[in-house]
Amino acid sequence: MKGKAWVIGDNIDTDQIYPGKYLPLTDIKEMAKHALEGIEGLEDFSQRVEKGDFVVAGKNFGCGSSREHAAVCLREAGVAMVMAESFARIYYRNTVNIGYPVLECEEITKKVNDGDILEVDPESGIIKNERTGETIQALPLSGLEREISDAGGLLQYIKKNTE
Amino acid sequence: MGSTIIEKIIARSTGREVVTPNERVWVDVDLAVVRDFGGPNVILEYEKDFGDQKVHDPDKIAITFDLHVPAKDEKVAQNQKICRDFAMKQGIKNLFDVGSGIGQHVLLENGLVNAGDVIVGTDSHMNLLGCANSFSSGVGTTDIVATWAQGKLWFKVPRTIKISLEGNLEKPTSAKDVILHILKNVGCEGALYRSVEICGPTLENMSLSERITLTSMVTEMSGKAAFTPPHRKVMDFLERRTKKEQDAIFPDEDAQYVEEFDFEVGNLEPQIACPDSPDNVKPVSEVEGTPIDEVFIGSCTNGRYEDLYEAAQILKKNKVADGVRLIVLPSTAEVARAALDNGLYQIFFEAGAVVPNPSCGLCTTGHHGILARGEVLVSTSNRNFPGKVGKGGKVYLASPATAAASSIKGKITSPGGL
Ligand code: SF4
């Protein structure tokens, strides 16, 4: 995977990722139009993001409510992967459960600038930053989370395993 | 090596002797709960994936209506109807409709929570049921769909943090002041992926309602689950409500904790969380005199009878200050009934308060009392992130006593002097 990094801060909550006023929307194409809209300066993110780009965040990404829209809208907007220094617990579960895994990576916002081009191998968790030439090791998904995610998500996983 | 409470509960519900932190396990879930908000998404998703397939066990499902009740607009009305129709079709008896009150409290009162149970729900404050010795946690839509279909859910066994409290609380300091003080020290991410046990001699005299206040705000520390140690009083309550014998789960003496905190709370003064974070906590005396527009007494953190009683003692023979709105909200119909029978409604009305029907009220920009830009609220709820009660509003979190005292003075006021 290769793409451009959008670097954002710590404690980005679900209201900034997907504002609560759009919760009644059920069409994912519509939902994607509001991805990251709650972050100051990124109101038009969905128009500027290109397919395959990455979101790079600080600590506790996805804190706040349990809304799954916050994971779905980024995938639908074209974001290939979210990498953060840490994820809020329910957000992390939601990404595994919908088969859109994330990468956890210490201090990544110190090693990546907004606009850097990254090459990411989700299997090994190795991230290469083209600008600095630096290789960064993230914590790749493993064990059960990997199996669920590889199956395409929790519902696919349980269907596969009950047949 | 011994086990913590959550390790024991998870082991039991997977049919194993012991489990170790970081292990991934499939757990038998005793109750999977949705609410009027979020519930319709779960139901639509379930029907998309499983069609008319019967749920794994309708008695292990509960639906609570607590956020936009009674329906505030057409969309909400439609969503509530989706829930009712599904419950009817699937034979789900535990639907608590408009008027019942806040989900977790309704479940407790209606005997759906047992010591040692595993409970999941689409609400980040499910944690509070740890006051009743159950492992209760907030999860997403897909988690609930999967649980309804197969009765099981995956978890990573978390490590546990132990918080020990020493000293007897001196009025007007309350359990809310204690948990705010803990938050200040542990921080909003301090318990991420962790279970939290709050214990120590101070707990000995605490009622169920005080324990609810403590466990509910472990969510603000990002905790996965919260527990207070099982106490005879709590077990008696559960036995009365569930009509079942309870099997209390204690941590082992030699249980392993990843972190331990000790707090002396005997001379703690009333605390308040300032905008815009629940861990931005100061003694009330430091911000005394800040002008306010609205006061909210209620929520899953402080909406019990004891909380309303505490507020009523201060409001008695007093009036809410001019230009200030006071909203008092019982957490459930049962709490409202007790408040009515014991004359609290009279006190609230005479003071000039608004008392809506039991619900989450203005929490999560639901109903009853959203702020205009620039307005200031003193709330007994649990979160004060930006926009939590309306864009541009500022929220301070405090105890029922501090909230009541502030409503009379029209500015942030320590309850001590009243
Ligand atoms: S009172 Fe607020 S925090 Fe508590 S359950 Fe209701 S919406 Fe959630």
Write a structural description.
The complex is a heterodimer of chains A (163) and B (418). With 163 residues, chain A is an alpha/beta fold. Chain A has one domain: Alpha-Beta Barrel (Aconitase, domain 4). Chain A contains eight helices and seven strands; from the N terminus they run βαααβαβαβαβββαα. A seven-stranded mixed beta sheet of chain A has the order 4-3-2-1-5-6-7. The model of chain A has no long low-confidence stretch (mean pLDDT 92). Chain B has two domains: 258 residues, Aconitase, domain 3 (2-Layer Sandwich), CATH 3.30.499.10; 138 residues, Aconitase, domain 3 (2-Layer Sandwich). Chain B contains 14 helices and 17 strands. The mean pLDDT of chain B is 95. At the A-B interface, helix 5, helix 7 and helix 8 of A face helix 2 and helix 5 of B. The structure holds iron/sulfur cluster (SF4). The site of iron/sulfur cluster (SF4) has 11 residues of chain B, from helix 10.
* Termini gap of chain A: 33 Å
Catalogue the unreliable spans of chain A.
none
The CATH level-2 architecture of the largest domain in chain B is identified as: 2-Layer Sandwich
> Domains counted in the coordinates of chain A: how many?
1
Fourth CATH level, the homologous superfamily of chain A: Aconitase, domain 4
The fraction of residues assigned to DSSP E strands of chain A is: 15-25%
Largest sheet of chain A: 7 strands, mixed
Number of helices, where a helix is a run of at least 4 consecutive DSSP H or I residues of chain B: 14
Mean pLDDT of chain B: 95
Question: In CATH terms, what is the fold-level topology of the largest domain in chain B?
Answer: Aconitase, domain 3
Encode the helix/strand succession of chain A as letters: EHHHEHEHEHEEEHH
CATH class term of the largest domain in chain B: Alpha Beta
Q: Main beta sheet of chain B: strand number and arrangement?
A: 5 strands, parallel
